[in-house]
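Design job #97: recover the sequence.
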């Protein structure tokens, strides 16, 4: 039988079909779901690799409780009942004592739309934390300030010219659905330009490769904007109708008439200094190439589309201005909301409402949204160890969910120091399908389902359409089709692996046994008053009541809405979502226009950044010291998925090393050959890796993928042996940490015969842990690019060596914090009311108490 579900191996939510053998009741393989509007039956390597994850003999199958000190590596198996009693009791006590900022849920990739918002607001806590500020915060700010939505939705398939500030054909956001449509456009005659310092696979498929110096991209884009204006390639009618140009003139030039002609003059004057020659000096791209690409953009007009998400926006101080500069090109060409242009993401994403939504919480956590970063998008999650230390705060109950900051985040040793300190973190429960470096420092390690073992609703802005997709536990659905009644997903999953939807329902129910806390009412069935809602009822109600067109489509096939979604796994809510601003007459900004001029930036202390501009990066050539290189650590490998691919043997067989990209001229200067050991020294420590000389990167710049370097502290527990090296870890003095690899990957005995066929030995090197936090003062984004010194390794160095001083790391945090311009802002606000904020509190919480 075929059971549809959704891949959970990146954020794209591509459809999968599980082929289930009715006799053995085992999944035989996973392929693409042709009924899925986003992925259309196609998957990258990560989708079918779900099969190897489900069958992984190394995965966690039963709840574990630590024995002895945190991080000591001793565990005992416990029952789910014992776990739930402990967690529910602790949650209930925190709520009864009104400690509503001491409960935190920290998620890596959510894999659902809105479910946890409902849970946390039912509890009345301000406790939602995410990974956004190591991912996309700067791009979000740039887009949000322009159009009131924080993500782009490019209409690649209908574009004539595509500008990518990313490696989008291989590893970018939603890259499988997007890559399909980018190549379809190319096959129809569209041209592609890629801005990337590396010769990525995407750059190699492009008509133009622009290897800019990282951080200079806003200068490049503003020079292109000047070309458009100088050569009359601007859709001035669009600009006049949809941009808040009058507001700018009235605020900044009140002495003259607020006419559109005067705005055009002022606009040209504003960007007069962004000549091709200036941009060439900053970017190191030939002026003629910049001009040629600008003219291609102008000729494409309303069918020009572009994308920046991580790339330069996440790497650099002021990276949010790159998104603002890029949006300026869209506005000048009139390519906002058009066929082949750029849509606000809400036009291409659909999130249905659940039954009985709880009211917003009444509290505001300064640990999540500190006053120093009032414009952050969003929670300042990577600063958590420093914020708890600096403010002498604590968490009583800390849930991490598919989240591995010790390995993924910068300054991971500061996370270890926080997690092992029971005065800072009272109880840490790690909800995870597999072992991770962070789970090692938990009190409970709780096995939760992989993509084929859980329920979720997801929708993403893959193209000019709105759709929803339904992740469902494959074996549960298969059992139900065979006539078996399944009331708990643990009955169908391996071991005692639970799905989180049921986990949160049960925890909320137990925490409020008599309903006195007001929680239980939100977890009562909409069909059976007073009874606990089942996971099927939760989704059945949504499909019956919140998805336009679904009941009618289901009825045509003789199905109810829930039956339709379990059969097909996806539903397209609406097609051709272009031009919605023409219907509504506005955008969701304070001016109801596209905001070239941002009064918000001025009101919150950043007047000089109220227009799209260029911020000199912290790794600008003028800010590099003698002998320093720029390290680009942000690029993905197409086959890996941050922490989640750790138990995917097929993926690690393909990709298992992250050498240092270095230009041949630099390699010669440093006496490095391919495979030479090289030490990379950051502000707080160093790591040792191998060199890979290549002309695919610029001189003066080195690069290393962040997808490798997994490790474990014990031979047979604490890490997937497909992907981790065995290491020793020692704190040689307070804050001084040293890691050394004891052995790499090797064959091992297990229930899977492939484990004894492992041929690769390299697990890569953990570079992120050697980076200090570098929070952008506006967006709150961790600025990933690093100033480093690159030297040939010493005789004492070994491959994979890591050293870090967390005392230095804390000092770097304090230095970057000094660049902020803290709130409160106008009227005592902690944050502008119109800006988005996940799990939004009630409006009164936005104001600092007087």
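Job complete. Output follows.
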């Amino acid at each position: 039988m075929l059971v549809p579900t959704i891949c959970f191996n990146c954020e794209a939510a591509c459809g999968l079909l599980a082929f289930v053998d009715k006799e053995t009741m085992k999944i035989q393989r996973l392929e693409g779901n042709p009924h899925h509007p986003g992925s259309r039956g196609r998957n990258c390597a990560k989708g079918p690799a779900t099969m190897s994850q489900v069958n992984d003999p190394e995965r966690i199958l039963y709840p574990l409780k630590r024995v002895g000190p945190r991080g000591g590596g001793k565990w005992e198996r416990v029952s789910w009942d014992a776990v739930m009693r402990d967690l529910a009791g602790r949650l209930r006590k925190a709520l009864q004592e009104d400690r509503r900022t001491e409960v935190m849920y920290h998620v890596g990739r959510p894999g659902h739309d809105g479910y946890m918002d409902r849970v946390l607001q039912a509890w009345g806590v301000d406790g939602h934390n995410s990974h956004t500020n190591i991912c996309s915060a700067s791009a979000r700010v740039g887009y949000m300030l322009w159009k009131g939505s924080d993500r782009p939705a490019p209409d690649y398939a209908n574009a004539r010219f595509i500008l990518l500030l990313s490696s989008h054909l291989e590893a970018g956001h939603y890259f499988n659905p997007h890559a399909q449509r980018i190549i379809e456009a190319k096959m129809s005659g569209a041209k592609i330009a890629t801005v990337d310092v590396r010769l990525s696979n995407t750059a190699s498929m492009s008509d133009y490769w622009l290897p800019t110096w990282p951080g200079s991209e806003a200068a490049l884009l503003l020079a292109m904007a000047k070309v458009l204006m100088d050569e009359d390639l601007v859709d001035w009618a669009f600009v006049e109708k949809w941009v808040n140009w009058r507001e700018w003139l009235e605020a900044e030039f009140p002495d003259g008439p607020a006419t559109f002609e005067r705005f055009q003059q002022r606009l040209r004057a504003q960007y007069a200094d962004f000549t091709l020659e200036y941009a060439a000096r900053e970017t190191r791209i030939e002026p003629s190439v910049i001009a040629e690409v600008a003219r291609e953009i102008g000729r494409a007009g309303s069918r020009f589309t572009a994308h920046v998400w991580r790339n330069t926006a996440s790497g650099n101080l002021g990276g949010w201005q790159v998104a603002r500069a890029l949006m300026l090109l869209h506005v000048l060409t009139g390519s906002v909301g058009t066929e082949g242009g750029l849509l606000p993401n809400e036009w291409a994403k659909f999130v249905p409402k659940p039954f009985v939504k709880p009211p917003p919480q009444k509290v505001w956590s300064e640990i999540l949204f500190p006053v120093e970063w009032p414009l952050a998008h969003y929670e300042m999650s990577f600063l958590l160890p420093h914020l708890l230390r600096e403010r002498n705060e604590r968490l009583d109950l800390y849930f991490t969910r598919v989240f591995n900051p010790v390995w993924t985040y910068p300054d991971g040793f500061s996370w270890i120091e926080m997690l092992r300190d029971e005065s800072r973190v009272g109880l840490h429960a790690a909800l995870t399908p597999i072992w991770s470096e962070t789970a090692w420092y938990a009190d409970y390690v709780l096995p939760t389902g992989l993509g084929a073992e859980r329920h979720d609703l997801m929708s993403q802005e893959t193209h000019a359409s709105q759709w929803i997709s339904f992740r469902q536990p494959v074996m549960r659905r298969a059992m139900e089709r065979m006539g078996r009644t399944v009331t708990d997903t643990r009955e169908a999953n391996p071991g005692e692996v639970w799905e989180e939807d049921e986990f949160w329902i049960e925890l909320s129910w137990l925490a409020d046994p008599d309903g006195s806390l007001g929680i239980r009412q939100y977890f009562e069935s909409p069909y059976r008053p007073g009874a606990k809602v089942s996971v099927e009822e939760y989704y059945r109600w949504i499909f019956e009541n919140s998805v336009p067109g679904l009941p009618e489509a289901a009825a045509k096939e003789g199905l109810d809405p829930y039956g339709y979604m379990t059969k097909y796994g996806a539903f397209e809510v609406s097609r051709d979502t272009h031009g919605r601003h023409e219907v509504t007459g506005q955008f969701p900004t304070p001016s109801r226009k596209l905001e070239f001029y941002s009064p918000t930036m001025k009101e919150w202390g950043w007047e000089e950044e109220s227009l799209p501009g260029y911020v000199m990066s912290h790794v600008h050539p003028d800010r590099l010291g003698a002998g320093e290189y720029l390290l680009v650590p942000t690029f993905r490998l197409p086959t890996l998925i941050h922490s989640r691919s750790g138990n995917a043997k097929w993926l690690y067989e393909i990709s298992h090393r992250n050498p240092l990209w270095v230009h041949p001229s630099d390699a010669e200067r440093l006496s490095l050959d391919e495979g030479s050991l090289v030490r990379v020294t950051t502000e707080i420590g160093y790591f040792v890796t191998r060199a890979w000389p290549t002309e695919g990167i610029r001189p003066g710049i080195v690069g290393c993928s962040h997808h490798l370097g997994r490790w474990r502290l014990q031979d047979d527990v604490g890490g997937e042996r497909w992907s981790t090296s065995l290491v020793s870890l020692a704190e040689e003095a307070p804050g001084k940490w040293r890691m050394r690899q004891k052995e790499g990957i090797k064959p091992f005995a297990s229930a899977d015969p492939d484990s004894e066929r492992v041929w690769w030995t390299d697990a890569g090197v953990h570079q992120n842990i050697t980076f200090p936090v570098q929070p952008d003062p506006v967006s709150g984004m961790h600025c990933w690019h690093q100033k480093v010194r690159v030297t040939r390794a010493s005789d004492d160095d070994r491959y994979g060596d890591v050293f870090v001083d967390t005392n230095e790391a804390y000092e770097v945090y304090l230095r970057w914090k000094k660049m902020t311009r803290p709130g409160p802002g106008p009227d005592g606000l902690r944050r502008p009311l119109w800006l988005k904020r996940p799990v939004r509190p009630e409006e009164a919480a936005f104001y600092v108490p007087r």
